[in-house]
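Tutorial handout. Part one gives the primary structure; part two gives the three-dimensional structure as tokens.
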Amino acid sequence: MSAADAELLAALRAVELPTLGHFLEDGFCGQELRPVNHGPQLVGRARTLDLTSPDAYAVNRALLALEAGEVLVIRVAGRGHAPVGAVTAHAAIARGAAGIVVDGPVTDASALREVQDRLPVFATGLTARTTKRSGAMAGDADGGLDRAIEVAGVTVRPGDLVLGDAQGVLVLPPAGPDPAVLSAALASDAAEPELLARIAAGEPLDTLLATADPAL
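Part two.
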């Protein structure tokens, strides 16, 4: 990883996603995609899997392809089967994954909460119906790996930046947001505690809100 890339990722870990929401309009996944556990802010580059069949072997191949710091992003056709549970999560941790995002359900909710400090997981829900060891996708040339996929209304391509927190998931192009936007968002976050303190101290709201940064 280059120094510039490491700096970008560090800045994205520091910024609040709702603050970026003041500056950006696109890339925010639909509200049905929510955190399953409460890990650290998710930041990493996408490794995508288009799971066109509930094939557990295809998920295993995607896990083996993961590189440290990547986010495994899975589109589940039909959203009917869970491709991620306790074993999958632990395998992702062993590969050094930054997190998992599933446009579909996951399973083993308690096990996912147990690893939340090491692997934030986002999904559209929970189910006990899981993928099967069928090998159904073995005939696909790429096994569904590294395709552009649609996740909760947003297109995710391999190498895109994937961010997630308690509010949801944001997908950014590989270069990240405009540097001026990121700088303004970080400055806004830095200024917010003082504004909250002034509100709590009873300063006139008409004055505070008229002069406050609109991104706060």
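Part three, for discussion. The chain is about 35% helix and 20% strand. The radius of gyration is 19 Å.
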